[in-house]
Amino acid sequence: MLLRVTALDPAPEPVGRAFTSVAVELALASYPGFAITAPPAKPVPYGVYHPAYVDRAAVEHTVVVLDADGSEKERVLVPHPARTVEPDDGELARRPSPYPAPVDTLTRRVPLGSFVHARSGDKGGDANIGLWVATSGHRHDPERYAARVTWLTKLISPSRIRELVPEAADLEVEVYPLPNLGGVNVVVKGLLGEGVAASTRFDPQAKGLGEWVRSRMVSVEDALL
């Protein structure tokens, strides 16, 4: 059994020698054969991520064109857009899929990754997951590809993500259907705490989160397999 203990504090003293010595002494006094994977390390500083918005007018959108040798050849300033709109406060993420519900049919329990691909990563303290159906192997079967995309877009919802990722049960989840790209985009807010530098997860950048989601079992219609 592997037990990992991570302690965070604004000051180094509470998580320094006073903490590690007691933890090691307590463990050594327990069951025979206990061992640690590495000596207790000294406290190290960590960063806290706070997302914020900056007025568009305060940022110059600049395109830097490089020459063949990597040196800067040209710098072009992109003008501010003439028209802007206010964000919809997640209305797109909350809306249901435009596809109709599938009819009752025989299903099989298989990993989501049977034909769904994934890529994931960190956006500050939020985890971002892209799920999509690959077109490879279905160039001569566009109907099956379209059916798989329809199924995926219907399947993935905030509540479903909370089932597939139990640690997101109490977190805000946004799901953006992208049917023209054959998939969906998922944002799990706060899964990484206060950002990568402050995250205590084994996978602080959520790079393996997509594969974890792909390994989860779901019910899939036989016709899609």
What does this structure look like?
The chain starts with 16 loop residues before the first helix and ends with a strand. A hairpin with a 4-residue loop joins strand 6 and strand 7. The mean pLDDT is 85. It is of the alpha+beta class and 225 residues long. It folds into 2 domains: 1-45, no CATH class; 91-224, no CATH class. It has helices spanning 17-28, 91-94, 142-155, 158-164, 209-214; strands at residues 61-66, 72-78, 107-111, 116-123, 126-133, 173-178, 183-188, 217-221. InterPro entries: AtuA-like_ferredoxin_dom, AtuA_N. Residues 110-217 form the AtuA-like ferredoxin-fold domain. Residues 2-64 form the Acyclic terpene utilisation N-terminal domain.
How many structural domains can be distinguished in the coordinates?
A: 2
Radius of gyration: 24 Å
Q: Which class of secondary structure composition applies to the elements?
A: alpha+beta
Poorly predicted ranges: none
Overall 3D shape:
extended
Give the strand line-up of the largest sheet: 4-5-7-6
Biggest sheet details: 4 strands, antiparallel
Spell out the helices and strands N to C: HEEHEEEHHEEHE
Subunit arrangement of the protein:
single chain
Query: What's the average pLDDT?
Result: 85
The count of DSSP E runs of length 2 or more, i.e. the number of strands, is 8
Roughly how many Å apart are the termini? 37 Å
Total of helices: 5
The share of residues in extended strands comes to 15-25%
Q: Report the helical percentage.
A: 10-25%
